[in-house]
Automatic annotation (TrEMBL):
Single GO MF descriptor: L-leucine binding
Top-level taxon: Eukaryota
A single cellular component GO annotation: cytoplasm
Upper classification of the organism: Eukaryota, Metazoa, Chordata, Craniata, Vertebrata
UniProt GO BP: cellular response to L-leucine; cellular response to leucine starvation; negative regulation of TORC1 signaling; positive regulation of macroautophagy; regulation of response to reactive oxygen species
Catalytic activity entry: a hydroperoxide + L-cysteinyl-[protein] = S-hydroxy-L-cysteinyl-[protein] + an alcohol
Pfam entry (one): PA26
Protein name: SESN3 protein
Keywords: Cytoplasm, Oxidoreductase
Location of the region described as Disordered in the Swiss-Prot/TrEMBL record: 207-232
Main location: cytoplasm
Naturally occurring in which organism (per UniProt): Syrrhaptes paradoxus (Pallas's sandgrouse)
Amino acid sequence: GRLEAVTQQMGYHPQYLDSFLKTQHYLMHMDGPLPFDCRHYIAIMAAARHQCRYLVNLHVLQFLRAGGDPQWLRGLDFIPPKLRNLNEINKILAHRPWLITKEHIEKLLKISEWSWSLAELVHAVVLLAHCHALASFVFGCGCEQDEGLGSRGLLKPLSPGNQCFYEAPTGNGCSQELLRINRKRSLDSCMELDSLRERMQQIHVETEGREETRLLQQDREEGEGQGGEVGVQDGNLAAEHCSDPSVGLFPLTDTDGEVTSATNLACYMQDPDFGYQDFARREEDQTQVFRVQDYSWEDHGFSLVNRLYSDIGHLLDEKFRLVDGLQSSAMAKRQGCEPSVFKRGIWNYIHCMFGIRYDDYDYAEVNQLLERMLKVYIKTVTCYPEKTNSEMFDRFWKQFKHSEKVHVNLLILEARMQAELLYALQAITQYMI
């Protein structure tokens, strides 16, 4: 199997990649509060907020492999209310996490038969934050553009039997072990690409058949003599007019044998115009500045998330520490400062855009450390990654090596993820109190 684009980029920093793969595997494939198909659907919802077709397509395939109901892929109107109720905090966390309140949490936990448990909600929140931040990395490093997913919708299938959607570089011990476990856990460890295509096409045909039967039966009941023919005709024409409910459900095979995606990302979103707004321009009655001294990952978030979703706190903490410990001496030297100072400037600038402040930090340093073009790049990738164009990675901050640019994108990924988690976990804490 070939290396996925994201793994190739993270491979410049193998220790971090190893930690990322462990966390990714644990979130998606190990025992946890949420069913496996729901995990991938939540990932689809999260990636769709940023129009990240790369991640949506990968999780659509994983969703089907996990036995997910193909009808769910028609959009939010066709999923269980419990999952659909998650849409509001998905939207807020993706764009304005400071708006999350304990009322949002209470609403999810107290909706009669569709209520979430605390453990389920924590798992879902971590998944949402993980995929939002990963979408930033995908756009920031040009993976979306490189794969051509934004224009052609090309879906690169997984290696047979590989349940984790990133394959690790050769020689990475932990990642090789993950691949072994993934293959063992696969729904069919002998499944080849051809059989996977055959399965998806079979489901497609069966769904079309059920829909035509339903239309015919409906027409007969209404007693419309010519309605049956019209109903079947409409179903057959749906490939062009998108009126067939089965269109957009499955990856389809093109004439070259590639698997392509017909997924319409808009169906996984509500309120698509809701996006990032500068925190500094918030209304006076909105959330006040989030002070890390009052609620931090180390003192509060870690223990809460680890208690409600066993071991995930340790995995997340390891990623946060590893990205902070990555070597960047050459990168910092070009900026005329110590590596730790440069990295902290980037981290605190990202958190500042989400309204998170550190009382012991002089924010005047940000303007001194980060040149304007680098700040523009960081803000775009962090706040509206879908607006990142294919030239930004190459044209901005040319003095940096490729591995250093990837390092900056890893800082964006982890700082953004921690910011979303801080707001969500604080709201859960307030609800519990």
